[in-house]
Amino acid sequence: MLERxxxxxxxxxxxxxxxxxxxxxxxxCFAPGATRRMTQLGMVVGSVLNKLEPAPEDTLVYASTFAExxxxxxYLDSFPAASPTLFQTSIHPSGAQQGLIGRQRSLGEVFSxxxxxxxxxxxLLTALLAPAARVLLCGGEERGDWLxxxxxxxxxxxxxxxxxxxxxGFAPLGxxxxxxxxxxxxxxxxxxxxxxxxxxxxxxxxxxxWRLQLNWS
Amino acid sequence: MAGPVASGTVFLKACECLTPFGHSAETLAALxxxxxxxxxxSVLGREGGDLVPLALLPDRxxxxxxxxxxxxxxxxxxxxxxxxxxxxxxxxxFVTSSNFGAGSLYAYRRxxxxxxxxxxxxxxxxxxLSKQLGWHENVAIFSHACVSAHLGLLxxxxxxxxxxxxxxxxxxxxxxxxxxxxxxxxxKILNADFPAPYQARATGSIGLGDGAxxxxxxxxxxxxxxxxxxxxxxxxxxxSNQPDGAGFEACLxxxxxxxxxxxxxxKGHGTGTLDAGRMESGAFAKVxxxxxxxxxxxxxxxxxxxxxxxxxxxxxxxxxxGRTPGTIGSGAxxxxxxxxxxxxxxxxxxxxxxxxxxxxxxxxxxLLSHA
Lengths: 217, 371
Hints:
The structure holds two protein chains of two kinds. Chain A is α+β, with helices and mostly antiparallel strands. Chain A has one domain: Peroxisomal Thiolase, Chain A, domain 1 (3-Layer(aba) Sandwich), CATH 3.40.47. Chain A has helices at residues 19-26, 40-50, 69-77, 84-89, 94-102, 119-129, 189-197; strands at residues 2-15, 59-63, 110-114, 134-141, 157-165, 174-180, 202-207, 210-216. Chain A has an eight-stranded mixed beta sheet. In chain A, a hairpin with a 2-residue loop joins β7 (202-207) and β8. By secondary structure, chain B is an alpha/beta fold. Chain B folds into two domains: 10-218, Peroxisomal Thiolase, Chain A, domain 1, CATH 3.40.47; 224-370, Thiolase/Chalcone synthase (Peroxisomal Thiolase, Chain A, domain 1, 3-Layer(aba) Sandwich). Chain B contains ten helices and 15 strands. Chain B has helices at 24-32, 71-78, 102-111, 122-133, 148-161, 178-186, 246-258, 274-287, 297-300, 307-321, and strands at 10-18, 39-42, 51-55, 93-96, 139-142, 167-174, 208-209, 211-218, 224-233, 264-267, 293-294, 323-324, 344-345, 351-358, 362-370. In chain B, a hairpin with an 8-residue loop joins β2 (39-42) and β3. In chain B, α1 packs across α10 (307-321). The radius of gyration of chain B is 19 Å and the shape is globular. The model of chain B has no long low-confidence stretch (mean pLDDT 95). At the A-B interface, α3, α4, α5, β3 and α6 of A face α3, α4, β5, α5 and α6 of B.
């Protein structure tokens, strides 16, 4: 069975917070001065991911529907004098890399997902198929500006990170499993975040061919 | 330290690519002739700027059209395998790219023409592409800069090996635009010089190229196999590697364990930057001493997120043909004695290691051989 146990989870529901507000709130999570160069997505994802203390033998699965959308907007507006810093931070998976590079946390496998309708299910499948003993599943979105009008950026900011293991261990916080199904279903990233943030259970189809069972202890 | 190796073997039922020279057979022939697709072009397209080496598909301009000019050649590329069943539950599609529709996004922002936004940005681009190609909704998207194709191949392998799919299509693409060339130019690694991968010279430089490719993975059918895959992510710096080159070796170690006793040649990443080229070739010489190392970005340019797939397809064509193209654009002195400047017969080798690297110190490698 495609199953993992949730050993730890952190979420950050930044909502409509501005980048400056997020920087002020989360600056203590990073090295002094580091947040000046970080994106809002990088700060939100980095702050929850680093709490899981990533280790070299972990597999990291990072999921963001729209990826580094705010950096993308700013980078585009920097032309014709293209900004090298914004170019770097606009490239997926910068949102996950910023915090990890800041703490020099090397990893073996890093899978970086994007997309809309199937993405939470796809990222879960990647996490559940990874052979590593511990998989870190993280993701998030940052509130965009003009890209929101073209369904190319999220209208709110959030981040999540879960530590998943094959063995239940002493006191898992929850369990998640993917099962084949012929029922139709769809779960988007924002709905997946809300489920995690509110620690709600689910037993239902979330994508073509897949049913999610999520239980909390 | 190293990432785990994918268990089992996956078969390549089909694998093909698209470069400025054509598909894999035409590209191989051009590389064996030592031809260079890179040409000096203005880094910002119609807006001018420095002349830098870019390799574009024939009749394709750097500035994007609406709809994108790359759709027709992509349709032609995929035609032999693009039947009606892709994207269903048992036949998943894995789309990988670094830039997706960034050229359309750039065109919209510079021109204000909203027609570009149907293809601009990642999500819209893949949704539009899926519709154009008739794919159903089981489409996963991976994007990790220049190792993107390797992520798709590894996850598709796991899905197929786990019996969750009958076969899987991995499609990789990246087409140039001022968005990309302007960015690399701003980083000062895209300059007027043509790239000379693995050559010890005073100044490094890269070229950029259009590229796309696909692989159909199966559990039981195909003339070629991928028998090991590995990844490693340094997380040391966005645009530089750990100075001791340990990240390159960490990625190769699991492949070396799997390939013990086999005679191999190596298709490296080899963009033309000096530090990365020195460390990469040094790691290959240490882990696989004597194995000839080639890189083709001196001709094709760096095709970014698609490079792992494009160069896999060319490697397969080389295995079929019996000759491996040399490291075009480079000359002596090279960083290591293993760098092969000229083409060579590959029939005495058991397989090839295909490696790619990316921003953030990301490394990926796979072991390809005849089935």
